[in-house]
Specification:
- Helix content is 33%, strand content 16%.
- The chain is built from nine helices and twelve strands.
- Strand 2, helix 2 and strand 3 form a beta-alpha-beta unit.
- Helix 4 packs parallel to helix 5.
């Protein structure tokens, strides 16, 4: 994806009492599931030509969506907007069986770019519903991922938006209850919700493995460490990106005096930096690294040229592309079939 130029000289270097610096969180930016989904759309365009349709935003980042639109992707809300027989990509957030069936009825060539970690939660929902468990799904109402997971077992799922919802939840059989969660939530808030649920339902079962994805957890751990030493934190990410919004909340909870979310470096305001010696920087799991680099360039103009990376984890997880896209146009195995661009590739 192309570099987004910053507006150099827009921010001024106003003196502060101490030494100006940036604490740069690592890991940050693209996770394996996002990388896989974005490459899936790019390769679908290579294979089949434009237009290729995508149900919902492939990932929750305005820059990624805009750039894919320039290449010929058309984003739609539902599959009934896609011409019969066309190619459609399901987003990284997953879809319900009803959406899959609707696409098949229209004769669409569907490519499933659902993050494998979301698919894991779908399979858990199917399994627990088959065993007649009531599933308490911790997540945000209206989020595509929640809609997809709930759609796997609609008669067995009760949505829990927050810890405050717990007193109002009723279940058929308190001895057959399990919790699952959206993958991009705040770890701390999710665990508080689970704690309250267990107080009401002592026999509440846990999922067989953690539902909150590794990338969400890693980015939250990193920003917790960065926030403790930061006067202000800047999170790069879009407003509809759950994990990006959570990073702002976590930064404030763990010590940052101020925290802001931006899509682009040009949104940073001079007054945010007033009196700040240390600026923390991170990005959500659907953000290309190039957008972070532009933030660093503008902060350098404001005197924050010293950048110290705060690394709390290494990420090397890789996901295979959807099976339809693992070969190039000549039928040879594509070099990007497993691993894509890497976790922090330049935009």
């Amino acid at each position: 994806m192309p570099r987004i130029p910053s507006v150099r000289g827009r921010l001024k270097d106003i003196p502060v009492q101490g030494r100006k610096r940036v604490l740069l969180a690592a890991p940050r930016g693209y996770c394996a599931g996002v990388d896989r989904a974005v490459i899936a759309v790019e390769k679908a365009l290579e294979h089949y030509g434009a237009p290729v349709y995508v149900r919902k935003q492939i990932v929750h980042n305005i820059h990624v969506v805009t750039e894919l639109e320039k290449q010929g992707a058309i984003f739609v809300e539902e599959v009934d907007e896609v011409p019969e027989g066309a190619h459609v990509v399901f987003s990284a957030h997953g879809v319900s069986p009803a959406v899959v069936n609707s696409a098949a009825e229209r004769g669409l060539h569907a490519i499933d770019a659902t993050c494998p970690l979301v698919t894991k939660v779908h399979r858990e929902a199917v399994r627990f519903a088959r065993d007649d468990f009531e599933i308490l799904l911790i997540g945000h109402e209206g989020h595509e991922e929640v809609e997809g997971t709930a759609g796997e077992a609609p008669d067995h799922v009760t949505l829990v938006n927050s810890p405050d919802d717990v007193p109002n939840i009723d279940v058929r059989d308190p001895d057959k209850v399990v919790w699952l969660s959206q993958t991009t939530l705040s770890v701390d808030e999710t665990m508080e919700t689970v704690r309250r649920l267990r107080e009401r339902f002592p026999n509440l079962q846990d999922p067989p493995s953690d539902d909150i994805c590794y990338a969400t957890q890693n980015r939250q751990v990193a920003i917790k460490k960065v926030a403790r030493g930061s006067d202000v934190v800047i999170v790069v990410g879009s407003a509809n990106s759950s994990n990006s919004v959570r990073l702002v909340e976590v930064a404030l909870e763990y010590g940052a005096k101020r925290a802001y979310r931006v899509d682009y470096s040009t949104e940073i305001r001079q007054e945010w930096l007033e009196g700040a010696e240390t600026v923390g920087v991170t990005s959500g799991a659907s953000v290309p690294e190039g957008l972070v680099k532009e933030v660093l360039l503008e902060l350098e103009d404001a005197g924050y040229g010293e950048v110290q990376e705060v690394k709390t984890a290494e990420e090397d997880l890789m996901f295979s592309l959807p099976k339809e896209l693992r070969k190039d146009l000549q039928g040879n195995r594509d070099a990007r079939a497993i691993g894509g661009r890497g976790r922090q590739a330049s935009a």
